[in-house]
Amino acid sequence: MIRGVRGAITVQENNEEQIVDATKKLMVQIIEENNIHAEDVASVFISVTDDITAAFPAKALRLLEGWTHVPVMCMKEIPVPGSLNKCIRVMIHHNTTEKQSEVKHVYLEGAVGLRPDLKAL
Protein backbone atom coordinates (compact mmCIF):
# COMPACT_ATOMS: atom_id res chain seq x y z
CA MET A 1 0.00 0.00 0.00
CA ILE A 2 1.25 3.49 -0.76
CA ARG A 3 0.60 5.91 2.09
CA GLY A 4 1.10 9.65 2.25
CA VAL A 5 3.00 11.14 5.15
CA ARG A 6 2.52 14.86 5.73
CA GLY A 7 4.67 17.39 7.47
CA ALA A 8 5.30 21.11 7.65
CA ILE A 9 7.78 23.55 9.13
CA THR A 10 8.30 27.29 9.04
CA VAL A 11 11.43 29.40 8.57
CA GLN A 12 12.20 32.81 10.02
CA GLU A 13 13.94 34.20 6.93
CA ASN A 14 13.79 33.59 3.19
CA ASN A 15 17.38 32.41 2.75
CA GLU A 16 18.90 29.24 1.36
CA GLU A 17 20.50 28.06 4.59
CA GLN A 18 17.27 28.27 6.60
CA ILE A 19 15.16 26.70 3.85
CA VAL A 20 17.51 23.75 3.38
CA ASP A 21 18.16 23.26 7.11
CA ALA A 22 14.47 23.40 8.01
CA THR A 23 13.50 20.99 5.23
CA LYS A 24 16.23 18.57 6.27
CA LYS A 25 15.13 18.76 9.92
CA LEU A 26 11.53 18.03 8.92
CA MET A 27 12.44 15.19 6.57
CA VAL A 28 14.72 13.50 9.10
CA GLN A 29 12.00 13.54 11.75
CA ILE A 30 9.35 12.22 9.35
CA ILE A 31 11.71 9.47 8.16
CA GLU A 32 12.64 8.43 11.70
CA GLU A 33 9.11 8.50 13.14
CA ASN A 34 7.71 6.47 10.24
CA ASN A 35 10.71 4.18 9.64
CA ILE A 36 10.84 5.23 5.97
CA HIS A 37 13.54 3.86 3.67
CA ALA A 38 14.36 5.75 0.46
CA GLU A 39 13.92 2.63 -1.68
CA ASP A 40 10.28 2.42 -0.50
CA VAL A 41 9.48 6.01 -1.52
CA ALA A 42 7.53 6.59 -4.74
CA SER A 43 7.85 10.39 -4.67
CA VAL A 44 8.05 13.49 -2.51
CA PHE A 45 6.07 16.67 -3.08
CA ILE A 46 7.23 19.86 -1.39
CA SER A 47 5.24 23.08 -1.46
CA VAL A 48 6.26 26.51 -0.25
CA THR A 49 4.38 29.70 0.43
CA ASP A 50 4.87 32.70 -1.87
CA ASP A 51 7.41 34.25 0.50
CA ILE A 52 9.93 31.39 0.09
CA THR A 53 11.97 31.95 -3.05
CA ALA A 54 15.67 31.77 -2.07
CA ALA A 55 16.17 28.02 -2.65
CA PHE A 56 14.54 24.78 -3.67
CA PRO A 57 13.76 22.84 -0.48
CA ALA A 58 14.37 19.63 -2.46
CA LYS A 59 18.08 20.38 -2.10
CA ALA A 60 17.77 19.10 1.49
CA LEU A 61 16.82 15.60 0.30
CA ARG A 62 20.02 15.37 -1.72
CA LEU A 63 21.92 15.77 1.56
CA LEU A 64 20.31 12.61 2.96
CA GLU A 65 22.20 9.39 2.32
CA GLY A 66 20.40 7.11 -0.12
CA TRP A 67 17.87 9.71 -1.34
CA THR A 68 19.66 10.66 -4.59
CA HIS A 69 17.25 8.83 -6.91
CA VAL A 70 13.96 9.64 -5.13
CA PRO A 71 11.75 11.81 -7.38
CA VAL A 72 11.07 15.17 -5.74
CA MET A 73 8.91 18.03 -6.96
CA CYS A 74 8.72 21.54 -5.53
CA MET A 75 5.67 23.72 -6.06
CA LYS A 76 3.88 26.80 -4.75
CA GLU A 77 1.23 26.51 -2.06
CA ILE A 78 -2.16 28.12 -2.77
CA PRO A 79 -1.93 31.70 -1.42
CA VAL A 80 -5.03 31.68 0.78
CA PRO A 81 -5.50 35.00 2.62
CA GLY A 82 -4.56 34.68 6.29
CA SER A 83 -2.66 31.41 5.84
CA LEU A 84 0.64 30.64 7.54
CA ASN A 85 3.65 32.49 6.11
CA LYS A 86 7.14 31.14 5.38
CA CYS A 87 5.88 27.57 5.46
CA ILE A 88 7.35 24.49 3.82
CA ARG A 89 4.97 21.54 3.45
CA VAL A 90 6.03 17.99 2.56
CA MET A 91 4.13 14.94 1.32
CA ILE A 92 6.05 11.66 1.13
CA HIS A 93 4.42 8.80 -0.78
CA HIS A 94 5.89 5.51 0.39
CA ASN A 95 5.15 1.81 0.39
CA THR A 96 4.27 0.48 3.83
CA THR A 97 2.17 -2.08 5.65
CA GLU A 98 1.13 0.54 8.22
CA LYS A 99 -2.54 1.44 8.52
CA GLN A 100 -3.53 5.02 7.69
CA SER A 101 -4.16 5.65 11.40
CA GLU A 102 -0.60 4.53 12.22
CA VAL A 103 1.09 7.11 9.98
CA LYS A 104 2.86 9.79 12.02
CA HIS A 105 2.53 13.22 10.44
CA VAL A 106 5.05 15.81 11.66
CA TYR A 107 4.48 19.53 12.20
CA LEU A 108 7.33 21.68 13.55
CA GLU A 109 8.08 25.28 14.51
CA GLY A 110 5.26 27.65 13.51
CA ALA A 111 3.49 24.88 11.62
CA VAL A 112 2.41 22.97 14.75
CA GLY A 113 -0.94 24.76 14.67
CA LEU A 114 -1.82 23.54 11.17
CA ARG A 115 -3.13 20.20 12.41
CA PRO A 116 -3.89 20.44 16.14
CA ASP A 117 -6.24 17.48 15.74
CA LEU A 118 -3.24 15.20 15.19
CA LYS A 119 -1.65 16.17 18.52
CA ALA A 120 -4.41 14.40 20.42
CA LEU A 121 -3.71 11.09 18.66
UniProtKB/TrEMBL annotation:
SUPFAM superfamilies: YjgF-like
Source organism (scientific name): Cytobacillus spartinae
Name the record gives this protein: chorismate mutase
Enzyme class: isomerase
A Pfam family it matches: CM_1
EC number(s) on file: 5.4.99.5
Domain of life of the organism encoding this protein: Bacteria
GO molecular function: chorismate mutase activity
Gene assigned in the entry: aroH
The reaction(s) this protein catalyses: chorismate = prephenate
Keywords: Amino-acid biosynthesis, Aromatic amino acid biosynthesis, Isomerase
